[in-house]
């Protein structure tokens, strides 16, 4: 027997027994969850739900990529920008930003704004730091080649 299938079956059994134990009235059984998933797929509401959750993700990623790449490139090219903004991104990357999501939800509600802010808070530091490191670690031979083709650093 395949170990992957066996591990999924054991997980489903543990989930089912945990739900039947009654430790939490809001914890559904595995079979009820799969039945609800199947009914959502059958009536087409699963696709609409998926698209509704994609909206804040796409908006948040567009904002994170635009601001994060711009900030990362600026930090990599200009030492004054790096000196001012790099500590902010270090703190944002090191801090448990997921713990601030309830605060954002409390302030902005459960609407689109709080969902977009959650995506931005979690993704922008990673994008900015990766862009910064990419620009900062360009090999000298590539910089020399850029200069030979009349390229400039700014």
Q: How would you sum up this structure, described in words?
A:
This protein is mainly alpha-helical and 154 residues long. The chain has seven helices and no strands. Helix 3 runs antiparallel to helix 4 (79-94) and helix 3 (45-77) packs parallel to helix 6 (112-136). The chain is elongated, with a radius of gyration of 23 Å.
Output the keywords.
7 helices; mainly alpha; 154 residues
How many angstroms separate the termini? 61 Å
DSSP helix fraction: over 70%
Q: Can you give the mean pLDDT?
A: 90
Q: Count the E strands.
A: 0
Largest sheet data: none
Question: Radius of gyration, Cα only, in angstroms?
Answer: 23 Å
Spans where pLDDT lies below 50 across 5 or more residues: none
Name the helix and strand elements from N-terminus to C-terminus, one letter apiece. Answer: HHHHHHH
What proportion strand?
Answer: under 5%
Number of helices: 7
Structural class: mainly alpha
Gross morphology: elongated
Quick recap of the structure?
Helices cover 80% and strands 0% of the residues.
Secondary structure layout:
Layout (H helix, E strand, L loop, with lengths): L2 H18 L9 H14 L1 H33 L1 H16 L6 H8 L3 H25 L3 H9 L6
């Amino acid at each position: 027997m395949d170990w992957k299938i066996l591990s999924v079956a054991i997980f489903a059994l543990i989930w089912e027994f945990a739900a039947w134990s009654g430790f939490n009235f809001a914890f559904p059984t595995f079979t009820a969850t799969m039945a609800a998933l199947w009914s959502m797929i059958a009536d087409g509401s699963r696709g609409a739900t998926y698209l509704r959750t994609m909206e804040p993700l796409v908006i948040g990623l567009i904002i994170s990529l635009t601001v994060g790449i711009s900030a990362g490139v600026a930090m990599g090219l200009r030492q004054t920008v790096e000196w001012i903004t790099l500590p902010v991104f270090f703190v944002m990357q090191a801090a448990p930003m997921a713990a601030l999501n309830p605060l954002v939800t409390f302030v902005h509600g459960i609407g689109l704004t709080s969902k977009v802010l959650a995506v931005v808070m979690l993704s922008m530091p990673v994008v900015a730091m990766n862009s910064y490191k990419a620009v900062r670690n360009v090999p000298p031979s590539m910089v020399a080649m850029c200069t030979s083709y009349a390229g400039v650093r700014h």
